[in-house]
Amino acid sequence: MTPEQRSRKEAAGTGAAAPRSLAESLRARDDVSLSALLRARPDLITPVPTDLTQLATRAATRASVVRALERLDRFALQTAEALAVAPDPASYDELLDLMAGDGGAEADPVVAEAFPRALAVLREQALAWGPDDRLRLVRTARELLSPSPQHPSPTGLGPTVAEAASGMSPGRIQEILTVTGLPSTHDAVSATASLTALFADRTRMAALLATAPAESLEVLTRLVWGPPYGQVTPDPAPRLRWLLDRGLLLPTAPGTVVLPREVALHLRSGRAHRHTEPLPPALTTAATHRPQMVDATAAGQAYTALATVEELLKDWDEGGPSVLRAGGLSVRDLKRTAVALDVSEPMAAFWVELAYAAGLLASDGEADERYAATPAYDEWLELPPAVRWTRLATAWLAATRAPGLVGGRDAKDRALSALGPGLDRSAAPEVRHRVLALLAGLPEGAAAGHDSVLARLRWERPLRGAQPTAEDLRGRLAEWALSEAELLGVTGRGALSAHGRTLLGDAAEHAPAAEPAGPGDKLPVHHRHHPPALREPLTAADRAAAADRAATLLAPLLPEPLDHVLLQADLTAVAPGPLQRPLADMLGVLADVESKGGATVYRFTPASVRRALDAGRSASDLHAFLTAHSRTPVPQPLAYLIDDVARRHGHLRVGAASAYVRCDDDSVLNEILADKRSASLRLRRLAPTVLAAGADPATLLEGLRAMGFAPAAESAEGDVLITRAHAHRTPPRTAPEPVPDGPPTPDATLLTAALRAIRAGDLASTAPRKPGPEPAADGDLPRTTSAETLATMQAAVLTGTALWIGYVNAEGTASQRVIAPLRVEGGFVTAYDHTADEVRTYPLHRVTGVAELADDQL
C-alpha cells in the first residue's frame, strides 16, 4: 500500500468519529504508518515516549516541527503553506483549490495529480491530521507558516478580514458595509462575517472590482502576490481612499495597510502560490560518453588520488607541520603542502582533510604537537590499491567536514583552517549521497548539468523563509561534492562510474530511472513514494559489501605497478607508469623527482647518490640495483657519478670534539684548512690526520659538503653511521566521527522495540477502568489503601484478570501500568506487565493504587 492510499484509508476511518486531536489521529494508525513517522522524524523517539499522547506532544514542539518542515520537498512545503492560510479545519477540495486555483483538478491537472502525494507526506509525518473533510495543520506549523507583519507568509497572503479588522472600531466597519452596499448589522462580528462573505464570493467581488478606478486596481496588482503590506499617509490619495472605503485595504497600524487574504485570493483566481511546483526539475544532460571511457577516466583519477595521499604522508613521514594553538594548519604550512603536491591550496586542503577523515593522519599529541601519519597508514599501504581507494571514498562519503570552507570565516569572523575546528557541516554527507544518487539516475555515461543538479536539490530540500546563508551553503556543498567526486575518481568526465555507482549501495538503486519531461508526464515512482530521507538506512554490513563490490570493479582498471625504469644518458630515469613499492622507495632515495604526470622523471645528482650511500648502500649495491631494474643499459655518466661520489664518500670522518675531522690523507686536511669557507667551522689541527672543530657534527657535515667534500659521520667507536629516514608516527588514533544531523534514522530493531513500548504505554494510559467510589482524574495515578491494593491483587491472581496500577520506582519516577498478577507473596507481586511485554516483580509498597479494567479490555 502506498503512502497516499494508506493516508486516504486512515483519513476515511472505519466508521468511527473523526479524531479530535493529533494524539487520537496517531492512535488510529497502524504499525506500518507509525514506523514511517518515526523513521522520517527520528527525534520523536529520542528518548522513546511513554505513550501516543506524549508522542503527539513531542511531534508538535517547535524544534521538531521546524526540523520536519525543513525536510519537505518544495511541493509538500507549498501544500503545508497553503494549509496554513486555509480555514481551520479545511476540506480536501478547499486545499486543492488553493493549490490548483478555482476549479481544482480542472484548473491544473498536474497539480491535482501530485497533490495526494504531498498531502500524504504531511499526514505521514504528523504535520497534518484529520479526515478529508476536516484537515488540520499542526498548530506549531501553522504558527511558523502563518503571515504576520514581522514574518510575512511564504505565500504572500496577508491576514483574513476578521484578523485584520479585529482592531478596528465597530463604527468604521459599519461604514465599510454601507459603502459596499451591504446591509448594516448590530455588531462587529456579524459585520466582519458579511464583509468576508462578499470578498469570498467570486461573482459579487468581480462586480465590485468592475467599478474600481484603474489606478486603484494598479495598487491591488502591486500587492496581490506580496508582500501584502503598504504605507499610506494621513490623507490618502483618491485611488487609496477608494480601496480603504470599501475594505479592500484595511489598516493594521498607523500608516500601514494590508490587502485582506480573501481579496488577494480572488485576484489570484484562488491560488495560494504564484508558481506551484508539483514536479521536480528535470536533470539536463551536459554530455554523454561511452561508459568504458567514463570508467577508465575515473580509474585514472582514483590512482592519482592514491598517489597524492601517499605523497602527502610521505612528505610528512618524519613529522609534519606544527598544530596551531587553536588547532589546524597554518596558512604558510598549507601553502608549502600545496607546492609539495603541485596543486592549488584549496585542492591541498581537500587531500589533507581526506587523509584525516580516513584516519591516516592526526596530531601526535606531544608537547611540540605536530601532524603525522597514524599507524593505520602503514596498514593501509599494505592493502591492494582498489581496497585503499574504497577506504578513501567511503570516508569521504561519510565525512561531515567540508574542506571547501578552508580560507573562509566563521560566524565569529575567525579564519577557518585545514584540519582545524569549525569545518563540520552535518548536511555534507546527505548532500554528497543525494548528488551521486541523482547522477546514478541518468543513463550510464551521461554527465548532468551542474545547474540542473542544484535546481533539483533546491526542490527536494527548499529552505523555509528563504534563508540565503543556509541555501548558499547547501548549494556550495553540492558544487564541492561534484568537484571532489571527480578528483577522487567516483565520477569520470562528470558521469558516475561503475565503481562509484556500486559504492553508493541502494542509493543508486532507488534513484529515478527517468525524469518527467513535461507537465503531462507521470510522477516517477521515486517521487510518488518516500523522499530520500525516508528510505531504510544502509547497515554497516551493507556498506562493507558495497565497498568490496566497488573494489572488485575498480581493480582491473587500475594500472599494474611496474618493476622497471628507463635510464637515460642525461642522468635521469623515466618511470612509464606506477612503480612497485620497493622500487619506488629505493628510487626515491637514490634520485630526486623532477616531474610527474603520465610518466615520472627522476634525476640523479651527487646529493641524491650521497643520500643513498648515507642510507647504508654501497656503490656496488647501487650498480646492481640499477642494472636489475632498468630496461636500458646503465649510462656511463651515471655509473661514473656513482663511483665518483662513492670514492669520496667516507674519506673524511666527522666525530665529536665538539666535532672532529680525521683523514688518512693529510693533504686533504691541509686543503680544508686553506679554504676560506672553513673559517666559520673554527678548525684546528690536532694531529697530522685529525682536525678539531668548534661546530657541532651536523653543522660540520653540512659545511664540508658545501665545500665540495663528501664526509661521512662516524660513531664514538669509529664506525660509519648509516642514516635512514625516521618514520614518525602518532599513537593509535581513530578516524574523526562525523557530526550527525540530528538523531540517526532508527533501524528495524529499534523501531519494533519503540512501537511495542509506545503501544503498551498507551494501553496503560487509555484502557477503560471500572468505575470506583472516587475515580481518578485523567492522567492521575490510582490511589488505594495498602489493604485494598493487596486484596485486589490476590483476587486478580485467582480470577486471572488484568489490573491498572500506579507505580513509583526507586528513582521516584511515577508511571501507569497494566499488569496481570500471577503471584502475591512476601510483599511482592509477580505479574505479566503488558506495558513492558514481560514478567516482572514489583514491591507492593511502591504501588500507589490499583483499579480493575473494564470487562472488554485485554
From TrEMBL:
One Pfam family matching this protein: Helicase_C_3
Entry annotated with the keyword RNA-binding: no
Keywords from the UniProt entry: ATP-binding, Helicase, Hydrolase, Nucleotide-binding
InterPro entries in the record: WYL_dom, XPB/Ssl2_N
WYL domain span: 788-850
Disordered: annotated span: 1-22, 145-165, 510-530, 727-748, 762-783
Compositionally biased spans, kind Basic and acidic residues: 1-11
Positions with biased composition (Low complexity): 510-521
Composition-biased stretches (Pro residues): 733-746
Gene Ontology MF terms: helicase activity
Record-annotated Helicase XPB/Ssl2 N-terminal domain positions: 565-687
PROSITE patterns xref list: WYL
Taxonomic superkingdom: Bacteria
Name of the protein described by the UniProt record: Helicase-associated domain-containing protein
Species of provenance: Streptomyces gibsoniae
